[in-house]
Design goal:
377 residues; alpha/beta; Aspartate Aminotransferase, domain 2; Aspartate Aminotransferase, domain 1; eight-stranded mixed β-sheet
Length: 377
């Protein structure tokens, strides 16, 4: 079997005619920067998510940085961020000479909760970046209530959860990325909604804030050559917007395919007592950007990874070090609390192949090899 961690080629082949037509049309129009496809995708994504304003940009990291820039924070102000996350969530804080405050995550969900955030709060705290890790939402009601009580901004990192929704206590729902003051996402090729290069977007229901995001992403201007503030140059490429317009139509289908694959894994691996299967929070749907298990005996995690590789099965460790242990953050970070869970997760997590084209036969083979490994041990 030619098992892949992510099968982008097969996914493309299913919609090849639509993609090729869209890209060729964009090339023929010759509007390569901020072409009509960008504006159309912006409107399409606003309609899909129900958010008032989408601001496309060059990538997900830019989205996070621009969002922080729009809040007028000052050097030394603190931003609470999970210790167990991808580097971009914390990196942008340091780049702006703000202080990342690393807080722990919940063992079950991989996400921060209010109890984590409370331990990181200080008089210098100005914002929270909840990361919807691996495809499901943080508990946004409690986070937003806490933020309101403490006059804090909330920037959602939604790079891994596009298409997921958060369910409120009254059973109403909102797309992840549309609950906080700003939602940020990435369209990196392996994301659930992905282009064929780099791309990103910011989302907000605040018109004033959205206008500021647009200006910062365009050299601080709202009128060409009239620069009202310092900004940057962060644009979603027209060709990538053309791709995204096509793939957005399939996002719900892709989410369903990932969810079915996750349930197949759950069934196939339910009797393997050596691992902990993913947890689904009652307040969130799950779009399974990653299918991440935890190995009970952390000493066996790397051996399992090697065994799978020897049998033609890729796997990944997201993430091998919590952010507080990364060299780049040693001199700029404040730890909000003991980070025991994040440190334990870094030693125990393993992500199995997960994508829209994953077959049941491939999953059976993967599960059989996992069972074989633990039976031999």
């Amino acid at each position: 079997m030619n098992i892949q961690m992510v099968d982008l080629k097969s996914q493309y082949q299913k919609i090849q005619n639509e993609i090729d037509k869209a890209v060729l049309s964009a090339i023929r129009n010759a509007a390569y920067i901020n072409g009509p496809e960008v504006k159309s995708f912006q409107k399409d994504l606003e309609q899909y998510t129900g958010v008032a304003h989408v601001v496309p940009c060059a990538n997900g990291t830019d989205a996070l940085q621009i969002a922080l820039m729009a809040l007028d924070l000052q050097p030394g102000d603190e931003v609470i961020v999970p210790a167990f996350t991808y580097v971009a969530s914390a990196e942008v804080i340091g780049l702006l000479r703000l202080t990342p405050v690393m807080v722990d995550v919940d063992y079950d969900t991989f996400n921060i909760s209010v109890k984590n955030v409370e331990k990181g709060l200080s008089s210098k705290t100005k914002a929270i970046i909840p990361v919807h890790l691996f495809g499901q939402s943080c508990d946004m009601t409690s986070i937003m209530d806490f933020a309101k009580s403490n006059d804090l901004y909330v920037i959602e990192d939604n790079a891994q959860a596009m298409g997921a929704y958060y369910q409120f206590s009254d059973r109403s729902r909102k797309q992840t990325g549309t609950v906080g003051h700003v939602g940020c996402t990435s369209f990196f090729p392996t994301k659930n909604l992905a282009c064929y290069g780099d791309g990103g977007a910011m989302m907000s229901n605040d018109e004033t804030l959205a206008q500021k995001l647009r200006m910062i992403a365009s050299h601080g201007q709202s009128v060409k050559y009239h620069h009202e503030m310092l900004g940057c140059n962060s644009r979603l490429d027209t060709l990538q917007a053309a791709v995204l317009r096509v793939k957005l139509k399939y996002l719900d289908e892709y989410s369903s395919a990932r969810y079915r694959a996750a349930q197949n894994y759950n069934e196939l691996l339910k009797d393997v007592n050596d691992i902990v299967l993913p947890y689904e929070a009652p307040y969130s749907s799950h779009v399974y950007h990653q299918y991440t298990v935890k190995i009970n005996d952390v000493e066996k995690r790397d051996s399992l990874k090697s065994f799978l590789r020897e049998n033609g099965i890729p796997s990944m460790i997201y993430y091998p070090l919590p952010m507080n242990e990364q060299k780049a953050f040693q001199n700029i970070t404040r730890k909000g609390e003991d980070l025991t869970v994040s440190e334990k997760l870094a030693k125990s997590v393993l992500s199995l192949p997960m994508h829209t084209e994953l077959t049941v036969d491939e999953q059976i083979f993967i599960a059989d090899k996992i069972k074989q490994f633990f039976k031999a041990k």
